[in-house]
Specification:
alpha+beta, three-stranded antiparallel sheet, two-stranded parallel ribbon, 5 helices
Length: 116
């Protein structure tokens, strides 16, 4: 798998953080991560490029207009989730994607800094 950092998603996450569109939710990302139904509903109204902005990773081996292309989701298509960033950071570390791990960590630090 050729998963790389998605710089558009990092930039978009930074914009969301600056705009205050962050949920500092407690609990587990699995409770907040959009399910297939929500993903499909979003894609009925948006292009895959917009969908990709919510994912820190891009799999270049997957087709451009497929959900499978995008990895490490961090939001619910309305707001960035702090626990989504934590999950992305942990999964990226486990799978050896250091660039994604680092980006998620930097975004987490920015979220925490702007919360204060």
């Amino acid at each position: 798998m050729a998963v790389k950092l998605n710089p558009e998603a990092v930039s978009y996450a930074q914009q969301l953080i600056r705009a205050g569109k962050v949920l500092h939710d407690e609990g587990h990302w699995g409770e907040h991560n959009p399910d297939t139904k929500k993903e499909n509903a979003y894609l009925e109204k948006h292009e895959y490029a917009e969908y990709g902005k919510w994912h820190l990773g891009v799999d270049a081996s997957a087709g451009e207009d497929t959900k499978d292309r995008y990895k490490f989701p961090v939001g619910d298509f309305q707001k960035l989730h702090r626990d989504g960033l934590i999950a992305a950071k942990e999964r990226a570390a486990q799978q050896g994607y250091r660039d994604i791990e680092t980006a998620a960590d930097e975004l987490l630090q920015l979220v925490d800094k702007t919360k204060k």
